[in-house]
Design brief:
It is a single chain. The protein is α+β, with helices and mostly antiparallel strands and 286 residues long. Helices cover 28% and strands 38% of the residues. The chain has 5 helices and 15 strands. The protein has a 15-stranded mixed β-sheet that branches. It is globular and about 85 Å long. The mean pLDDT is 89.
Length: 286
């Protein structure tokens, strides 16, 4: 009986030690890959001294593997049927694109510059919000994205820009918890409804290789500050800063698949977008 009690005590002590070790290692990982409040404050002060203002939070920078993607799937037939159903459709082929249009709507499929990108236009919108309240416009945009993407992939709203009489909604796919900047659907809603949109989706295959350490978000922003101040001296506001996957090439022509890397995406209030490679801290504009 005493031996059983001792054994139970040893088991309990062993469990407590392992739980404590797990919590210690977990907290160490969080500390290593999350910016402290002191570093964030220092970053904000340095940016403001350079007339740059940050309005978004800073993402964590846990190690990430590369993401394998393949060419966009050929969805032309499905998409035309989904939009136009039994309507009379005029089909034209040019050197650069395939176009399907009715008296109200048009779908154009790029065949050269970025094969797989689809453009939508409507002179008499069929996707119309019940009213111009924000939640109704958002619902209409969400419904449209499901049709435009054939409900393939999980898309989420990552940005919104409002004009005098219109709003533009930016969606990106989230694959296994990670944003894919290269997979996007952009929707414009005017007072009468959705009048324009464009979309492209490279097919994610999965993550490959061991996770690689990333540059911290503050180092990426210091890099951006140095770069932008080499030619721009006006006040700048960073409205969005997120971390996801992007491709440098504009096309995958003659390639079955490729591996893409994680990037920080920096959006300014002016509408400009910059990307910084999270592996190398190199900056580029698409």
């Amino acid at each position: 009986m005493n031996m059983q009690k001792m054994l139970n005590s040893f088991i309990m002590i062993f469990l407590i030690i392992n739980i404590g070790l797990f919590l210690f290692l977990y907290q160490r990982e969080v500390t290593r890959h999350t910016l402290s409040s002191e570093r964030i404050l220092q970053l904000e002060n340095i940016l403001e001294k350079n007339d740059i203002y940050l309005l978004d939070h800073l993402p964590d920078f846990y190690p990430k593997s590369k993401l394998r993607i393949s060419m966009p799937a050929d969805i032309e037939k499905e998409l035309v049927e989904g939009f136009f159903q039994n309507e009379e459709v005029r089909f034209t082929i040019s050197a650069n694109a395939h176009t399907h249009e009715t008296s109200k709507e048009r779908l154009t499929f790029d065949q050269v510059n970025e094969k797989g990108r689809v453009f939508y236009g409507s002179s008499e919108p069929t996707f119309v919000p019940k009213n111009l309240l924000e939640h109704e416009k958002s619902k209409t945009a969400n419904d449209f994205v499901k049709v435009m993407t054939l409900d393939k992939g999980k898309y989420e709203l990552t940005d919104q820009r409002d004009g005098d009489n219109f709003s533009i909604y930016y969606y990106n796919e989230r694959f296994l918890g990670e944003l894919i900047f290269s997979n996007e659907t952009i929707v414009r809603i005017d007072e009468e409804g959705i009048t324009e949109a464009r979309a492209i989706r490279y097919v994610p295959q999965g993550f490959v290789g061991s996770p690689i350490e990333l540059f911290p978000a503050d180092e990426a922003l210091y890099k951006f500050m140095s770069y932008i101040r080499s030619f721009e001296d006006t006040t700048l506001t960073i409205t969005d800063l997120d971390l996801g996957y992007a491709m440098r090439q504009s096309t995958l022509e003659n390639v079955i698949w490729m591996e893409i890397e994680p990037y920080y995406r920096i959006k300014l209030s002016t509408g400009q977008t910059y990307f910084i490679n999270a592996y190398t801290n190199e900056i580029y504009r698409p």
